[in-house]
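**Fold tokens**
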Amino acid sequence: MRTTTVSIGVWCLALSGVLALGADNKRAAEVRERLRNAEMALREVMAVPEKEIPRDLIEKAQCAVIIPGMKQGAFIVGAKYGKGFITCRGKNDRGWSAPANVRLEGGSVGFQIGGAETDVFLLVMNEEGERILNSEFKIGAEAAAMAGPVGRQAQANTDAYMRAKILGWSRARGAFAGVALEGSTLREDKDDNQALYGRALTNKEIVNGKVTMPAEASALVKTLTSFSPRERH
């Protein structure tokens, strides 16, 4: 009987290990798919010059956040949330960092453009806004946010936009517009960071260069760089 009990215990441990590995592999696959979706969303929104995020703002930005396919319900009732990535330029004359995983929850977009899912884009415009790398960051309470201008010919260098700490845009059903995300909370996602990097890193560790850029993330960073090629000096 004792031998049987031990055997069952060993089998249960082995099964739990297999299940855990399967869950980890599923999460890693979801993160990789989200990276592809984020890169595609950015490329598509920048494909039409008169409707793109002004490139001079991307050039001036300290960090960029892309949330592909956020459920519209999250903005209305706060019951759901979207997942995406943040990448920052850093302070040592280097380009965009490896992306860290984030979740955007609650709040209101302030401008509903319809559609089952919404792509959300944020630009953090100065180093003070890098507080967005904290484990939990309340947009509006910790840094003022405003709707960003649309189009290459937009007056993106007006005083209002230059003073803004965070600028936001959203896209659904082909419509694209600036949005204010007051009341939303951005959180780091260590579980997804572990799935992508193999260890539970903080977002600060990732964007500060403590990791090697994974192959799955290179397309997103390369696309972002193509719209803001000059490194900060």
User: Anything to note?
Assistant: The chain has seven helices and nine strands.
